Amino acid sequence: MPKEAMQKKNKNKKLKQMARAGSARYVWQRICQNPLALASVIIISLMIVLSIISPFILKCEYSKISMQDMYALPSLAHPFGCDELGRDILSRILYGARFTLAVGFLSVFMSATLGIALGSVAGYFGGVVDQVIMRFLDVMAAFPQLLLAIAISAVLGTGFDKCIYALGIAGIPHFARMMRANILTLRNQEFVEAAISIKCSKWRIIVHHVIPNAFAPLIVEISMSIAGAGLAASSLSFIGLGVQPPAPEWGAMLASARNYIRLYPHMIMFPGIFIMLSVLSFNLIGDAIRDALDPKLKD
Predict the structure, then answer these.
(1) What is the Cβ-side half-sphere exposure of residue 165, based on CA atoms within 13 angstroms?
(2) CB–CB of 233/243 below 8 Å?
(3) How far, in Å, CA of 34 to CA of 21, rounded?
(4) 41-89, pLDDT tens digit by residue?
(5) What is the DSSP string of 221-265?
(6) CATH number of 57-279
């Protein structure tokens, strides 16, 4: 057998052993073998770590105003330059990652939790319960997610927590419909009938048997939704309905710098790059997870 074929066979054998050892470990193994996905994990990890330790490692505070550094171009003292009030853009971007990433994670956690719960109940019980839940969610899904989030933000008000609520509520229908579709394909399977035969309660069947088996396809959607939620959070802040100044949220930084795009493009360029990197990284991670969970690619 040629050497390359032998190496490929050993590699596939090792992957199958990893898959038998545990799905999470197998997914991580597949991500490590994907250079773009691994780089994305490193980028997101660095953003999270630097956002936490930035006040301790940077000389300039994100809120410190310096009139002599107004509109300063990138330099050794200020690698990303300064904004219209002389505030260091690098410090503001790193600290602002707390808001953008936190809104993305927390809003998706909220929408996924509520959506999975509603979709599970609707899909398993069916009948009137299914009709009531899904028709209500259909009304919500009739509006584009960002437009619905804008409407909810206008009602709830502005702020970090209100932004999470708005995006979390707007994302519920998507997760509920996906979970319901998965439940409909599983509720007549043999393991569900076996649980019914030993007189397990319906809620125990849903929580311990149905949801765990229907959750795998949602993992990919959750990772992709974090990217969309982070972008939506920046969009809400850009139009004044999200995190409010002086908090250095990336969308708010873009909004305050848009009037200076011709004279001082660095003020809007660096926040835009970080938004692009975060969205691209989460999407690449989601693609890698999807490939790892695809049974056709495990053979």
Answers:
(1) 13
(2) yes
(3) 20
(4) 999 999 999 988 888 888 888 888 888 888 888 888 888 989 888 889 9
(5) HHHHHHHHHHHHHHHHHHTTSSSPTTS--HHHHHHHHGGGTTT-T
(6) 1.10.3720.10
Tokens 């956002």 appear where?
A: 51
Between CA 96 and CA 101, with CA 97 as vertex, the angle to 5 degrees is 130
Count Cβ atoms within 10 A of the Cβ of residue 75 and give its class: 0-12 exposed, 13-18 middle, 19 or more buried.
exposed
Q: Are 62 and 91 in contact (CB under 8 A)?
A: yes
Whole-angstrom Cα distance, residue 125 to residue 160?
36
Exposed / middle / buried, residue 48 (Cβ in 10 Å: 0-12, 13-18, 19+): middle
- The tokens for 53 are 């330790």
Separation CA 238–CA 176 (nearest Å): 29
Rounded Cα–Cα distance for residues 239 and 267 (Å)? 17
Rounded CA-CA distance 18/117 in Å is: 31
Beta bridge partners of 82: 88
Alpha carbons within 13 angstroms on the beta-carbon side of residue 148 total: 20
Task: Decide: residue 287, CB within 10 A, 0-12 exposed, 13-18 middle, 19+ buried.
Answer: middle
Q: How far is CA 179 from CA 83, 158, 294, in A?
A: 45, 31, 18
For the stretch 248-286, pLDDT in tens is 889 888 988 888 888 899 999 999 999 999 999 999 988
